[in-house]
Amino acid sequence: MLAGMSVACAVPARATPHHPPAAAQAAPQPQPDYDGLPDACLTHVITVPLLTNSGSPIIPATFNGVNGLAYISITQGRVGVYARTPTDFPVQAPVDIQTIAGSGTTYTTVLHDLRISNGAAQDVPALLEGMRIPQIGNQDVLGVIGYDILSNYNVLLDFPARRMILFLTADTPDCAPGLDWLGAGSTSVIMLPDATGRLTGLLMQVGDRPVRMEIEPGADFSSLSRRTAREIGLTKTILHDDMNVRTNAGKILNGHRHHFDNITIGSWHDLPLDANIEKTSYNVLGMNFLRRRRILISFPQGMLFMTPQQNMPDDRGQATHGLLSTRTAVARMVDTPPPAPDSTPAAGAAPALPASPTQ
Q: How far is residue 258's CA from residue 187's CA, in Å, rounded to a whole number?
């Protein structure tokens, strides 16, 4: 969890001996705008802009005192870091990972100082993503903010307003996130755990066939594995008529793009969805479905709420390519050593630091 940073308060002026001043009038403070969320219920709020349009979301972040950008990923277990030189981060133990393109190995490390807006965390367990710093425009992409940080919060990805809000709620029944927090036409789904217990997926239906999908804003496009495609009845003959696609997810994935018009998610029926059919390890619900929506992931509740897509006149502006289209694959840890007795939290867990909003 990220610990909030505080700001020093001004010291009131001393009263004169003969003319005591009138009671000080506090300067009016601007009311926080949380996009319709109930202000009285929110605690430990961290607000950060989303710096992209229809592409995968990028946020400003500071890694070890260096300002830059970071991707947001639900399926990546730990924070990921890019290194310029072999000495930027300490290389610790090798670890097996599962990416959408298959299995692999990387190394654990530690990010000594992570800052996102008014939140900060120290000595964050991390994964090495590679020895190259990607760039968007003229800014460096420092890494990936993963599940270990995000899952401590309720996460609002407000794509129309282009901002992300991380928050906790007051411990009262009236402050449990619900459909009414997002407005009319919204739907809700139960978040499903993966093999490690992380709440990263949801159940989607294609016709009458249930399909598990991983929620991944780090993917530009939704995708289904070839195995899933066969299970729901997509034959090679059907896919032969679909457009050919190539995805760079650490290695090149060749496939076809198929259009569905019989998708059910929550209370929504007969939704359209375009998805790449590729040789992947799991299925992904990506930004072509998520964009232009307000998506509230309540990790404490294990629920996801989202709105219908909204019209955005400048939606076709500058957009980044996500982790699963042009850069490294999202990494999911699949083999971590057991914690030692009386040790700190297990590998992959967020640092247990108190969070508080900026005063």
A: 25
Q: Residue 64's domain spans which residues?
A: 39-200+292-335
Using CA atoms, how far apart are residues 260 and 273, in angstroms rounded to an integer?
5
Check which CATH number belongs to the domain holding 128 and give it.
2.40.70.10
Which of helix, strand or coil describes residue 337? coil
Q: Please report the beta strands in 146-266, taking only residues with DSSP state E, as ranges in sequence order.
A: 154-158, 163-169, 187-190, 192-193, 199-206, 209-215, 223-225, 243-248, 252-265
How does pLDDT run along the chain (359 residues), one tens digit per residue? Answer: 676 443 333 333 444 344 444 555 555 555 566 767 898 999 999 999 998 755 678 999 999 999 999 999 999 999 999 999 989 999 999 998 877 777 788 999 999 999 999 999 999 999 999 888 988 888 999 999 999 999 999 999 999 989 999 999 999 888 999 998 998 899 999 999 998 999 999 999 999 999 999 999 988 899 999 999 999 999 999 999 999 998 877 778 889 999 999 999 999 999 999 999 999 999 999 999 999 999 999 999 999 999 999 876 655 444 444 454 433 334 433 433 333 444 333 333 333 333 333 33
Q: Is residue 75 part of a domain?
A: yes
pTM for the whole thing?
A: 0.80
Residue 120 domain flag? yes
Residue 299 falls inside a structural domain: yes
Instruction: Quote the number of domains for the chain.
Output: 1
Question: Does some domain include residue 43?
Answer: yes
Give the burial string for 68-81 (b: 16+ CB within 10 Å, else e): bbbbbbbbbbbbbb
| Half-sphere exposure (Cβ direction) of 239: Cα atoms closer than 13 Å | 21
